[in-house]
Write a structure and sequence with these properties.
This protein has a seven-stranded antiparallel β-sheet, with helices on both faces. A five-stranded antiparallel β-sheet has the order 5-6-10-8-9. The chain has 16 helices and 18 strands. A hairpin with a 5-residue loop joins strand 8 and strand 9. The longest helix is centred in the last third of the chain and has 20 residues. By secondary structure, it is of the alpha+beta class. Bound molecules: flavin-adenine dinucleotide (FAD).
Length: 459
């Protein structure tokens, strides 16, 4: 509980209507997209300007109050859970798209802009911002930058850090700084911009961002490839890429997910298939047609038992909606889901999938898998119940082995969700202590009093 005089100072900075302390509000801001981390803050504040954020951080720094930045609260690593209490600094009222600059293919946004709102505005101008986390209805640009989020489109377009030209950020000292700029090229001193991107709210608060945009492709087409072995589906990913075709998206759904989606919203998915891959190609119409034809040939050659090319956008939208519902399908089925975010080199996807199956069998765990297969970024999930200790402990062991298997295959712990609270154990295990030390020194330089999102990444 914060002392009354500190609450009053916060109220005088952002206005009484932008400070929440009721038990219901504190509960509402105690969790994020994970199902297993909960901790209430002492207060939630909604600043509306960078200057207000500067004053809040100055106060917090002086009084050593933890500050957890928060956008949509959709992250799945425990990142916006205020594990040490203090202030949740929520940016959702800073939600203006300040400028769309067609001439320079850029946009300037506040951190609380929800991705879907940006996407709709940009589409009116014939533009798009490629990073496309599937939480686009709630995820904000601040959270997307802080997590360096990705999504299906990354296979062709890359992740968030490739689309951020510059940011304005408030440091724990209260200083307001600009990192990067508005140009495509920028080699002026150390690249502090890219240290901030993916820093998970531990270095300061992003208060504005300059985004790089692309013109919307004039055509897109979707192909569904059906498999009777999920590992064989994994092989098709690199067979397509090695044939010099880079589709816009390559996404995987396994049998558990296919059946569950059909149960939730019947749409004629192949429920007997062990897995399916969804490919989307985008670009000029002739190229898209050609690429889709080539993909159909390649996947048939490498084990697809059926191939469906969506006849129109409505059919394609149906398939993509199924993929988007993948997370909801899993989380709606069981009290606790341990969902991973490991990423392996794409040539190792089949071996990794086989290993996941082996581990799930060994621990007798119901499991499922969706993922951005085109990036080697899979989300294998183990279904459990945190209240059933024996089952939960077994589930944790299975997940630990899945992570170890990914690392042994040359992969990483997290492709897009970050370390947060969820992956600290493994972060410490697989990261060279010298590198961890360098990171801690960077953190200390930005945030000597450790007020920014304390407890995350390595504590
Ligand atoms: C259904 C579902 C699907 C998802 N699909 C994807 C996906 O495809 N790809 C993907 O990458 N992720 C995905 N995610 C995870 C999540 O949506 C992303 O991590 C997203 O970027 C979080 O944005 P947010 O606004 O909700 O941030 P929050 O959850 O509020 O915060 C995330 C982190 O960013 C920090 N932060 C927030 N705002 C700021 C700021 N202004 N300045 C500094 N730090 C800040 C927080 O402290 C926290 O550490 C998914 C989540 C769900 C629930």
């Amino acid at each position: 509980m914060l002392q009354q005089h500190l609450l009053q100072q916060l109220e005088s900075i952002v206005g009484k209507e932008n400070v929440l302390t009721s038990p219901e509000s504190l509960k509402a801001y105690s969790y994020d997209g994970t199902t297993n981390w909960i901790h209430e803050p002492d207060v939630v504040v909604f600043p509306t300007t960078s200057e207000q954020i500067s004053q809040i951080l100055k106060l917090a720094n002086r009084e050593k109050i933890p500050v957890t930045p928060r956008g949509g609260g959709t992250n799945v690593s425990g990142g916006s859970v205020p594990v040490q209490g203090g202030i949740v600094l929520c940016t959702t009222k800073m939600n203006k798209i300040l400028k769309i600059d067609k001439e320079n293919l850029t946009a300037t946004v506040e951190p609380g802009v929800v991705l879907q709102d940006l996407t709709l505005q940009l589409a009116k101008e014939g533009l798009f911002f490629p990073p496309d986390p599937q939480s686009f209805l709630g995820a904000t640009l601040g959270g997307i930058i802080a997590e360096n989020a990705g999504g299906p489109a990354c296979v062709k377009y890359g992740v968030t850090k490739q689309y951020i030209l510059g940011i304005e950020a408030v440091l724990p000292s209260g200083d307001i700084v600009n990192l990067g700029g508005r140009t495509l090229k920028n080699v002026v001193g150390y690249d502090l911009l890219h240290i901030f991107i993916s820093s998970e709210g531990t270095l300061g608060v992003v208060t504005k961002a300059e985004l790089k945009l692309r013109p919307l492709p004039p055509a897109r087409k979707t192909l569904m490839a059906v498999y009777d072995d999920v590992a064989v589906a994994g092989e098709s990913v690199y067979r397509v890429l090695e044939n010099a075709i880079i589709p816009g998206k390559i996404e995987l759904m396994d049998n558990w997910i296919i059946r569950r989606i059909e149960e939730m919203m019947p749409m004629g998915l192949p429920v007997d298939a062990d897995a399916l891959l969804l490919f989307e190609c985008d670009g000029i119409p002739e190229a898209v047609d050609k690429e889709i034809e080539q993909i159909a040939e390649i996947v048939k050659k490498y084990g697809a038992v059926d191939v469906r090319i969506a006849k129109d956008q409505a059919e394609a939208d149906k398939y993509w909606m199924a993929r988007k519902a993948g997370f909801a399908a899993t989380f709606g089925k069981t009290p606790t889901v341990l969902s991973e975010d490991v990423t392996v080199p794409r040539g190792n996807i089949p071996a990794f999938i086989r290993k996941i199956k082996e581990i799930a069998k060994k621990y007798d765990m119901e499991n499922c898998m969706v993922g951005h297969a085109g990036d080697g970024n899979l989300h294998p999930s183990v279904l459990t119940d945190i209240k059933n200790k024996e089952h939960y402990d077994r589930a944790v062991k299975a997940v630990d082995e899945i992570i170890e298997a990914a690392v042994e295959l040359g992969g990483v712990l997290s492709g897009e969700h970050g370390i947060g609270l969820e992956k600290q154990k493994f972060f410490n295990k697989v990261t060279n202590p010298v590198v961890i030390n360098l990171m801690k020194n960077v953190k200390a330089l930005f945030d000597p009093n450790n007020i920014m999102n304390p407890g995350k990444i390595w504590d």
